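B., you asked whether I could sanity-check this one before it goes into the benchmark set. Here's the sequence:
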Amino acid sequence: MIGGGQLARMTHQAAVALGQSLRVLAERPDDPAAQVSPEVVLGAHTDLAALRKAAIGSHALTFDHEHVPTEHLEVLIAEGVNVQPPPQALVFAQDKLAMRRKLAELGVPEPPFAVVESVADAVGFGDAHGWPFVLKAVRGGYDGRGVWMIDDRAEAERITAGQLAAGVGLLAEQKVDLKRELSAMVARSPFGQAAAWPVVETVQREGQCAVVIAPAPDLSSAAATEAAGLALRLAAELGVTGAMAVELFETHSGELLVNELAMRPHNSGHWGMDGAVTGQFEQHLRAVLDYPLGSTRPLAPVTVMANILGAPEAPAMSMDERLHHLFARLPEARVHLYGKGERPKRKIGHVNILGDDVAEVREKAERAAYWMSHAVWTDGWDPHGH
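And here's what the prediction gave me:
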């Protein structure tokens, strides 16, 4: 697996259960996956020699992020490496403009967009499609980075000029008046077998995924079928293998528009580690190794995942003690920690809670995640007074 982040770490956990070993190309020895994987190659994902070293003798080469240059992957394929997903699919997760154009070609609903090659292009887009609009880096952005909400002409001029001068390719998209964000996750094998998980609601805060509710509450069965069907169709049309998340906007009128694609395990699928018969990490491995896929059936009426995001200041209480108190209060909480240092807003872990009632399960999951981040119970509960 190329990339040593938390997605690779959790994929390694799934590999162990399948009797497989995950070799990781990591940048640093303390990367989340490098801490636990038995085989670590240190190097950059942009270095062909490092990619070759990681790929030697592998059954399959896959990714925990989309940023590996496709020209390097073409070289590896020519040398006999089994790259999954293949570069001709991966490019649509790497390059937002390529993705938008391909979706348009396939007739898939998406927001109006335009290439931005000058300040005039940006200002013209805002005048034509309304202010504010969304400006995106064509490549490299994620978790709110490389995305700007442009409120007016002055901001359009300043940010566009600065980014273009820095050599960043840009794309403008109309700001969607959305009811909420959804994610349709699927997996597909080289054989062509595919499976879809229930469509989930993702709650974003400051451009970052904070909470995932599975399945998405109050989503009509028709809309859920449409979203899952769209994701399965895209996986087949684009030649995707492994896990893929299709991030969607649901408008107030009930329309579904594609926001982004991720061709790898994804934050919106973490709930399935505990809440589905087969979680995304095992399913991703099954898919890239061309095994039959596992059942995606949920194990409870509701599963809520809440990200543990670094507090503005790391608490004095150790993570181990916080975990101790969490388990004492909420023994049903399923905690996944990534082995990362605490920094403001950094994803350092997540909590999954299963149950029957959406509001109750969500409150527990968010309270647990906040406790793990801040060492503060949001309802004022005192661990030493009980």
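One thing to flag: The CA atoms of residues 250 and 256 lie 5 Å apart. Otherwise nothing jumped out at me.
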